[in-house]
Amino acid sequence: MKRVEHDVVVVGAGPAGSMTAKWAAQGGADVLMIEKRQEIGSPVRCGEGISKQWLEEVGITVDPKWVAREVRGAKIVSPSGHTFLVDEKNAGNEVGWVVDRVFFDKALARDAARAGADIMLKTSATSLIKEDGKVVGVRAQSYGEPIEIRAKCVVGADGYESQVGRWAGIDTSLTPGDIDTCYQYRLTNIDYDPDYCEFTLGSAAPGGYVWVFPKDEDTANVGIGVQLSKVKTPGDPKMYLDKFIAKNPGLKKGKPLEAVAGAVSICAPLDSVCVDNLLLVGDSARMIDPITGGGISMSCIAGMCAGKVLAKGVKAGDLSMNVLQEYEKAWRDRLENKLWRNWMAKEKLTTLSDEVLDQLVHTLTEVGVEKLSVQNLLAVVKAHHPDLVKEFEDLI
User: pLDDT of 60-101, one tens digit each?
Assistant: First the structure.
């Protein structure tokens, strides 16, 4: 059996994996990133929307090649059609782009390679290698052949269905209330406003929302997330989305270019994402905004935190929890408060009726909000209709 040795092996070449590999390699670590597919970034299972404000922080240079559409803001639409407009006045750099993930993911992997990381495609991790109870690498299949990859630390960046976390004994289990099942079309020949992303709340998407993310003047990603606890049959998300499209004159005439299905975690932060000589990052570590289901920015920020700590640990010759605890602290300092707050808000929002959601959005439309956040939105509603947000008192 072929055997190779590296300081760090990163399992998965999505944004979390590439960002971890880049920052670890940039810090002097010998990094190998493996990807089970033959092409990084494909197939796409994502709405592809990102904001702007975090890109500079993690060292991503904007490339027009991966910007499909720059948008002016977003429309939050209530069940009866009230629309709250979010733009740069109240969201600042939260307003951003709809990207092309095929090009975006490749660009991040390219940055990792330029920093010194090695990349192997069509290479699937099959198990951890342990000696005396210590993680010392992964076994994998590379182009159909077995390979041992020995490493001082294993990084699980293998997404929502992460196996690395389970193999390591990290509890990444989810309840039905902490999963959104998703279905998305790319529709062309549609009539809509291509300058705004759109989110429709309420019974059209039980426990989630319907999104329209512009790709060009007459093409958009049109998708839905439905809370698994509210799904009765596997085909429900597609059924709800088809009903929504059929009722929307501008979307009804659209023609599908592709369709994708998947799931996303919408849970509270995990208690731990590390064990000695192994860490999780991004979707595999459940670093997903429970309100939006978005995770690209969090994956990249956590990946940067992980990469810096890995480089430090390699230099010190210690990648036990003594060192990896610095990663736990770094990502939690940066992300955990928002994850907890938005999870608690999600838990309550999913219980609201269409009538209450209509009142909430209508109030926001009338009053407006200076700076966008869950906390500020609720505070504005409380000032005018305190009865609507009694269930949210602990979040304001």
Answer: 999 999 999 999 888 999 999 999 888 766 554 445 899 999
What is the distance between the alpha carbons of residues 396 and 383, in angstroms, rounded to a whole number? 11
pLDDT digits (tens, 9 = 90+) for 284-342: 999 999 998 999 999 999 999 999 999 999 999 999 999 999 999 999 999 999 999 89
pTM value?
A: 0.92
Distances, alpha carbon 373 to alpha carbons 72, 179, 201, 210, 226, in Å: 18, 22, 17, 20, 23
Domain spanning 176-265 has what CATH number?
Answer: 3.30.9.10
> CA-to-CA distance for 265 and 174, rounded, in angstroms?
8
Write down the CATH superfamily of domain 2-48+100-174+267-345: FAD/NAD(P)-binding domain (3.50.50.60)
The amino acid at 314: V
Name the 3-class secondary structure at 3: strand
pLDDT tens digits along 201-214: 999 999 999 999 99
Tokens (6 digits) for 325: 């605890």
Q: What is the DSSP string of 16-76?
A: HHHHHHHHHHHTT--EEEE-SSSSTT-S--S--EE-STTTTTTTPPP-GGGEEEE-SEEEE
Distance CA 77, CA 90 (A): 17
How far CA 29 is from CA of 237, 305, 307, 310, 324, in Å, comes to: 43, 14, 9, 8, 15
Count Cα atoms within 13 angstroms, Cβ side, for 15.
Answer: 29
